[in-house]
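User: For documentation purposes, I need each entry recorded in a consistent format: the amino acid sequence on its own, followed directly by the corresponding structure tokens. There are two entries in this batch. Please keep commentary to a minimum and don't merge the entries.

Assistant: Recorded as requested. Entry 1:
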Amino acid sequence: MGVLDGKIAAVTGATSGSGRAIARRFVDEGATVIMLARGEARLEELHAQLGDRAVAQPTDIGDPDSVRAAFTRVGERFGKLDVLINNAAVYRPCPVEHLSDDEIMTQVRTNFLGPVYTSRAALPLLKAAGGGDIINTSSESTLDPFPMLSIYVSTKAALEAFGHVLRTEVEPEGVRVSTVIQGASLGEGGGSTGWEWDPQHTETALRIWGEGGWLTRVAKSTQTVEQIADVHVYLVTRPRGQKLEVVHVRSY
């Protein structure tokens, strides 16, 4: 038996990086995991690996109609939700003056509006379960802002603020809201967004980050996505009445 037997969890960005590791770990611990991501082929591939307790649900979290439809299906099938993990995010280095409209809006929709849409849709199901957990994934780049990542850093800072406000609204109904400020991590499945980085901007960013010490301070060494998954299991298995509002997880 696992520590999450009988729990229903939804994970965004479930086909890559830490989202993939979280989905796998939750299934291993007995949960049923609704995997939310855009790539249907990758969702089906992961479903084939994890089995029937991993439910593939193609979803564009930046589209409110897609989110509403996905959580309607969750409600119809399960009638509740115990955990929502807002893990999906996209970024690529670019100076502000060269940002395209698409580069701005894709990051805003995925990194900030997506968690707003999913939290809104999940709350009735979390309440139906008698309470539960929302975990938002932020980045330690909000603590040491990287040049050429202005939109990514800004959307993650906005997500942290959203979590603080949401926590005050839903705590009386038994819903805990936690923020995981995640340091650099390594694991399978990264880079599945189909968003290619501009080689010139990437070269410039890596030089600036190296010369300015950002890579040394924030990404000096790495942790694994499996260790990130461990943190999420720990958060959702705390006794009711205990909360960990902000957890900064990094390697050393």
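Entry 2:
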Amino acid sequence: MLTQTLGWIAAVAVIAGVAVALGVAPREATQGNVQRIMYLHVPSVWVAYLAFVVTAVASAVYLRNRAAATDRLAHATTEVGVLFLGVNIATGSIWGKPTWGTWWAWDARLTSVSIVFILFLGALLLRRATEDPERAARSAAVLAIFGALNIYLVHQSVNWWRTLHQPPSLLKAGPAAMPGAILAPLLINFLALGLLAAYFVTRRVRVLAAEAEALA
């Protein structure tokens, strides 16, 4: 019942997020309406990072106590994180074509985020490729922790190297601060996608638990 309620709340939040992104947020003066993809592109990566942090914590706990519940949580959040990071990479390419003139550029930000995506995708593939479930869980946990550590590199890549990607602007103050008319829709969509991710994780954990019970 709680999972179903969460799903309905997430659905309403996503609809509200789309409405404010397309109908309330101002039209960007330079890029025009193509800039509105930011309201999906940016929150999706925030949600992916949050999911991967949960994965890393759950993986560390699993490596210590071998509790199946923590492995199921790590498994579910890895899948959801890969999904949302994939959305982020895809929307970034769509946004990059009209603004940069190319679908893809091997600069520091795009390359580093691709590495994180591949690491967590690799963790999922390890689970499929390893016959021993406990060994698969351990291997995936180690790789997920390593992948989560790379998120800091992704965040700092635009500060440490010259890239096509713009530097972070969310926490800037003064004249460079993000206008409230743009920040508010971003936060609404972050909340919406966060609720959607939580719903996906909850449902996936239940499915994994049912599968384990059936196998037992």
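Summary note for entry 2:
The chain has one domain: 2-163+181-215.
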